[in-house]
Structure formats: structure tokens, C-alpha cells
């Protein structure tokens, strides 16, 4: 089966950002309680070995039982696993520089694992690699320090998994999204932004050098495609990462702020409250993700 009937240049494909965020195989930890989660960013995929899960959101309700895969809808969800359910859980991103997921469609999917046997095999290979080299880590795998050769082994295993995932999505009628810009200068600007560590200041000089654009022209392009300024786009990326760190790590508030370039915890708290209407401590206590719409609205290609 061909992965795409709409060829694009290899350069454009190479702008995809793929990252394994976590993977684990074991007993689900919610103990049968109903949990609220934000699954709007990235992909959340579960293989049910034992038990079941029911997920509900504004897009509808779906249930998966033993021997089935569930792809979570891209939405705020409530989910409930049967007691002592055992699952293979994978959270990963595969996105264009705009933040759009690789495939269109927000609805969830449920299918029989026997229909996509290579997907399960490659997922298990990826899980074994993580267990072998990061045995005590699962939720914040993406924060682990590894050597470059080991990183490439993870990327290779993830690529094999993504090939099968892509074929499954096409099989179930999903189409590739296109991030909607054919302006190479905007693509370069996005690449500069995503390549810059989030602990660094906004990379304006780097962008100007690579694109030849003035700040005014750059923001004009960003407004045309995303409805926001380049700086607000940068802040949205930082807020998304901040939320992820608050929800999936045990880093202190000060450590999260330092990771994002704030030398003073008070400055970090003020910045977070400005963009989310609550403090980092309040957000971690309540455990639900805030919307980034206060910064930029829904970022999508035009």
C-alpha cells in the first residue's frame, strides 16, 4: 500500500517534527476512576491487552476492549478504564511546523489489532527499546538524556512504527494534512523557531538571517497564515511545553520555569498566569490543561 497518493518534495516532508513522548506496557494506573484529559495535541494510542476503556467527548463516545486499538480523539476527554486493565500506551507527536497533526480529522478510532499486526509488532519493539534503556521511565521519556547513537535507534524504531501507523490511518480513511504555506520564507522562519531551545530568547536575529525578512514583513506573513504574530506563536509553543512539563513530570515550578528560560520563579508565574489565567501551581493542582487560545487562537494552515 502506498503511504501517500499526493507526493510532496522530500524537503517539505523533512519539516515534519516527530517525537516519542512516552510509551509503556502494563497495568493502567487510574484504578477504574474516571479521568479528564486534554488530548488535543499529538497522538494518544492504546492497545488494550486486558479489560476495556470508554472515552467520551463532544465528538461522541467510543469503547475498546481486549485485542483492540483505540486512537483518542483530538479533544478534551473523559476516560474510564476497567479495573486492572492492561494496556500498551503510546503518546507521540507527528506534526508540521504549524503544529498541525500529520493527518486530518479529530474523531477517535477503534479497530481490531489483528487487522494491523505490523503496527503491534513495531509498537512492541519500540516499547522494548524504551524498557531496555530507560527502565524506570515511561511518562516523561522525552526528557531523558541519551547518547546520539541511542537517540537515532529510538528514531529508527519510531519511524518503523509511524510507517505502520500511517498505513492504518489511510486504511481507515484519514488523509494527510498540508500546512497550507508554500512561502519558503515562512517555512524557514518556522524551522528557526522550532529549532531554537525554549530556554532561549525569541530567535529574531536567527530568523532574519535565514529569511531576509523584516520583523514587520514576518508578522504580516504570520498573520496571513496563522492569525497571530511570530512572537505570540513562540509563546504558544512555550506554553504547550510548560503545560506538558507541569502535567507529566515532577519538576518543581522553579525548575519548569528555568527549563523555559525564566531565571526568577516569580517572572515565570506572572508569564504563565498572563496566558492561562491561573498560576502554574493552580494548574498542576487541578491537573487539566489550559487552552492556548488566549495567545493565538487555533493555529492552522490557511
From TrEMBL:
Keywords attached to this entry: DNA-binding, Transcription, Transcription regulation
GO function terms (MF aspect): DNA-binding transcription factor activity; sequence-specific DNA binding
Keyword Calcium: no
Ranges of residues in domain HTH araC/xylS-type: 187-286
Domain of life of the organism encoding this protein: Bacteria
Pfam families: HTH_18
InterPro entries assigned: Homeodomain-like_sf (IPR009057), HTH_AraC (IPR018060)
Keyword check for DNA-binding: yes
Name assigned to this protein: HTH araC/xylS-type domain-containing protein
Source species of the chain: Ereboglobus luteus
Amino acid at each position: 500500500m502506498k503511504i501517500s497518493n499526493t507526493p510532496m518534495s522530500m524537503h517539505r516532508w523533512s519539516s515534519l517534527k516527530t517525537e516519542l513522548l512516552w510509551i509503556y506496557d502494563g497495568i493502567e494506573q487510574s484504578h477504574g476512576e474516571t479521568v479528564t484529559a486534554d488530548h488535543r495535541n499529538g497522538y494518544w494510542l492504546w492497545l488494550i491487552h486486558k479489560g476495556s476503556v470508554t472515552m467520551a467527548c463532544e465528538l461522541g463516545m467510543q469503547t475498546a476492549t481486549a485485542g483492540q486499538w483505540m486512537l483518542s480523539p483530538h479533544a478534551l476527554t473523559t476516560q474510564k478504564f476497567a479495573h486492572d486493565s492492561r494496556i500498551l500506551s503510546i503518546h507521540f507527536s507527528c506534526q508540521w511546523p504549524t503544529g498541525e497533526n500529520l493527518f486530518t480529522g479529530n474523531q477517535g478510532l477503534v479497530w481490531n489489532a489483528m487487522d494491523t499486526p505490523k503496527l503491534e509488532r513495531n509498537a512492541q519493539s519500540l516499547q522494548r527499546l524504551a524498557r531496555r534503556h530507560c527502565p524506570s521511565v515511561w511518562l516523561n521519556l522525552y526528557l531523558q538524556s541519551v547518547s546520539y547513537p541511542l537517540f537515532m535507534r529510538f528514531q529508527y524504531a519510531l519511524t518503523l512504527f509511524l510507517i505502520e501507523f500511517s498505513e492504518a490511518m489511510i486504511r481507515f480513511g484519514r488523509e494527510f494534512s498540508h500546512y497550507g504555506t508554500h512561502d519558503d520564507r515562512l517555512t524557514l522562519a518556522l524551522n528557526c523557531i522550532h529549532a531554537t531551545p525554549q530556554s532561549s530568547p525569541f530567535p529574531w536575529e536567527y530568523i532574519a538571517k535565514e529569511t531576509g525578512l523584516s520583523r514587520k514583513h514576518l508578522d504580516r506573513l504570520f498573520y496571513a497564515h496563522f492569525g497571530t504574530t511570530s512572537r505570540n506563536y513562540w509563546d504558544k509553543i512555550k506554553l504547550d511545553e510548560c503545560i506538558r512539563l507541569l502535567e507529566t513530570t515532577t519538576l518543581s515550578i522553579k525548575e519548569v520555569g528555568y527549563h523555559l528560560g525564566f531565571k526568577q520563579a516569580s517572572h515565570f508565574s506572572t508569564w504563565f498566569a498572563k496566558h492561562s489565567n491561573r498560576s502554574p501551581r493552580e494548574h498542576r493542582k487541578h491537573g487539566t490543561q489550559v487552552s492556548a487560545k488566549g495567545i493565538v487562537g487555533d493555529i492552522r494552515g490557511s
